[in-house]
Amino acid sequence: MATRKVAPLKAKLPKIEELEIVQDPQTTAEVAGLHYVSDDEPGWTRKKHGKSFSYFDHKGAKITEAKHVERIKALAIPPAYQRVWICPDPKGHIQATGYDERGRKQYRYHPQWQQARDETKFARTLAFAAALPKIRATTEHDLARNGFPREKVLAAVVQLLEKTAIRVGNEEYARENKSIGLTTMKNRHVKVEGTRAHFHFKGKSGKWHDIDLKDRRLSTVIRKLQDLPGQSLFQYKDEEENIQHIDSSDVNAYLKDIAGEEFTAKDFRTWAGTVAASLALQELQSFDSEKMAKANIVEAVKAVATRLGNTPAVCRKSYIHPAIFEAYLDGSMLDSLKQSVEQQLEGNLKDLKPEEAAVLGLLRGRLAQKAESAK
């Protein structure tokens, strides 16, 4: 199979003090040196030919030029995909789309697009950490509201996202996969006893979760929510006293409103995984060989996987900031964490936990290094 090398990004990374997040895909494509494309545009297709495929342009002409065929094959589009669209532009940020056996649309992105998204993740994680004190203060205020208005119930969900790391959930997953998240929980999925709430539910990939939370205020709110009519746990009363259900889009809209940025429920899990990984690596013995270092990272990832209820592979790929491992492997992590605590516990970050402030300082330092090297 043909392979391609990904050129390093030349674009300047976001400034630390601005904490910019590249949300617009067109901007990200530009940063990556790519062209923003859509599969609504004319593209190439494929047709089964024996045990392989033949490829055709949008006019129906067969594509035979070696460099085009090699690029397409390098995309490794699964044979089972239907309605495949292939980008004619080798610099398109989307290189191909198709539909899997369950009818779900899948994407093959340009490697430089993925790299650009990874680079901007530094700024996103920094911004989320910096916004946490404001998010926490607002949810505390909303949780103290009388009755069961929308803001109070959303505040409860957001606090549970942070304190339990349970996925937010959505109706599609609940309907198709029978997997449960916070917004799709029923009353039967949680039992409240005094100041404790015990969650028992089947999550993503059919895995059963048992999570205990000790929190007087949240346990009280959950117990009262269970008294509302209906089976759904997280519901609120509108202005006309009608019962309304909370879904994941409500949670993400609430987060955007209180934080002023396009954060989502997943950011809580990413931040929790990143902090947990740094703490786990601190507790492991120092290493004197590459083999030991890798073994320690494996153990740290397993600890995070237990916390988040993911597989270690998914945890490492999606929920732990790569800068944590980079800093650990180059030996700078422990010193960075120790030196950054006092510096970060100032101003609007004073409400962060010491370990969170330390991790934020470490990430800021790594971002500064990358920005300097990109000049």
Report on the structure:
Helices cover 48% and strands 13% of the residues. The chain contains 13 helices and ten strands. A three-stranded antiparallel sheet has the order 3-4-5. A three-stranded antiparallel sheet has the order 6-7-8, with helices on one face. Strands 1-2 form a two-stranded antiparallel sheet. It starts with 24 loop residues before the first helix and ends with a helix.
User: Helix share of residues?
Assistant: 40-55%
The major sheet is characterized as: 3 strands, antiparallel
Cα-to-Cα separation, first versus last residue: 35 Å
Please report the number of helical segments. 13
Structural class from helices and strands? alpha+beta
| Tally of discrete structural domains | 3
Quaternary organisation: single chain
Provide the CATH architecture of the largest domain: Orthogonal Bundle
Q: What characteristic shape results from the CA principal axes? A: globular
- What is the top-level CATH class of the largest domain? Mainly Alpha
Question: Which secondary structure elements does this structure contain, and how are they paired or packed?
Answer:
Layout: H1 25-31, E1 45-49, E2 52-56, H2 66-74, E3 82-86, E4 94-99, E5 105-109, H3 111-143, H4 150-164, H5 171-177, E6 190-193, E7 196-202, E8 208-214, H6 216-225, E9 235-237, E10 243-245, H7 248-259, H8 265-283, H9 290-308, H10 312-319, H11 322-329, H12 333-344, H13 354-373
Antiparallel strand pairs: 1-2, 3-4, 4-5, 6-7, 7-8, 9-10
Helix pairs in contact: 3-4, 3-13, 4-7, 8-9, 9-10, 12-13
